[in-house]
Design goal:
Blueprint (H helix, E strand, L loop, with lengths): L2 H12 L8 E5 L7 H12 L5 E5 L9 H4 L18 H4 L2
């Protein structure tokens, strides 16, 4: 993901939902975000739009900036549970 994609995500999350309610964005392979994209994402993590949840998925946290990691709640999925990812939204309610 590059900075342009993060900026597009920021713009999309600023839009209001027609039906109200919460919004969520999932950023897969977050450890591969380049430095510029991580810094742009940092601003989004610091001041997320109202009723918005951001989910960063990464194989490991070491590829993320310390400042990004410090603003995230870490949830570790054991390798055996990786196939159960489709059940994650229901499990988190």
């Amino acid at each position: 993901m590059r900075i342009g994609q993060v900026r597009a995500l920021q713009a999309a999350l600023r839009l209001r939902s027609h039906q109200g309610g919460r919004r969520a964005a999932v950023i897969a392979d977050a450890e591969w975000l380049n430095l510029e994209a991580q810094n742009a994402l940092l601003r989004l993590l610091e001041e997320p739009p109202e009723d918005t949840t951001l989910i960063l998925v990464a194989a490991g946290a070491s590829g993320l900036l310390a400042t990004v990691r410090s603003r995230c709640q870490r949830v570790v999925w054991p390798p055996a549970a990786a196939g159960l990812a489709e059940d994650a939204p229901e499990a988190m309610r």
